[in-house]
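User: Here's a structure from my thesis project, written as structure tokens. My advisor, Dr. K., wants to see whether a designed sequence matches the one we expressed. Can you design one independently, without my sequence as a hint?
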């Protein structure tokens, strides 16, 4: 442990691994809105905020539980498809509020290739909210639609029914077959887009 007369105890949130203050300083001083992606053990949360030294102002936000309650989503609320759809919802709300560009902020999440946080950022760019991201780290289209989940469910159902029912109990409790996830993703995405047709130019 560091010691000495010049040693400063790190701020509490830095000690708790919640805030990188160097990144925080750069984001506040950049002058842009910030696109924040956070994930827990159960959900994904996306916010678009206007930073300020006196406290951030939330311009738009979306929580993956909204997908279930408002749009009939029957899949998981923490997987890659859910992250994309949550990012889509938050981004459309930000566009409706007049935001066109936002700097990405994934907090202390490790920036691994194909991560859920990049699925949410991909959604922003797909609908016209510019959030810088490398195409190399964005999940492929088949993963965004949950095709990998559907394929895994199909294999388990045929080879290990007990594990299948355990792994996909949430899906099955909602009366949904996980092998149909890609098609269901398309349906829910269409519902979200329809709700913001004035932003996407879809009419209605």
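Assistant: Designed independently from the structure alone:
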């Amino acid at each position: 442990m560091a010691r000495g007369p010049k040693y400063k105890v790190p701020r509490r949130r830095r000690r708790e691994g919640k805030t990188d203050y160097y990144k925080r300083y750069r984001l506040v001083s950049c002058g842009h809105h910030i696109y924040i992606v956070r994930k827990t053990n159960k959900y994904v949360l996306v916010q678009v905020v206007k930073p300020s030294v006196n406290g951030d102002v939330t311009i738009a936000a979306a929580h993956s539980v909204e997908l279930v309650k408002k749009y009939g989503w029957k899949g998981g609320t923490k997987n890659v498809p859910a992250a994309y759809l949550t990012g889509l919802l938050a981004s459309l709300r930000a566009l409706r509020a007049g935001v066109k560009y936002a700097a990405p902020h994934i907090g202390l999440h490790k920036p691994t290739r194909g991560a859920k946080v990049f699925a949410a950022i991909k959604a922003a760019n797909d609908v016209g909210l510019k959030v810088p991201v490398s195409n190399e780290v964005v999940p492929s289209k088949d993963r965004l639609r949950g095709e990998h989940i559907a394929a895994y469910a199909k294999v388990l159902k045929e080879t290990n029914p007990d594990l299948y029912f355990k792994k996909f109990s949430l899906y099955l409790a909602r009366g949904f077959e996980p092998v149909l996830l890609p098609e269901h993703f398309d349906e829910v995405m269409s519902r979200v887009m329809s709700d913001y047709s004035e932003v996407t130019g879809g009419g209605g």
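When you compare it with your expressed construct, this may help: The chain has a mean pLDDT of 88.
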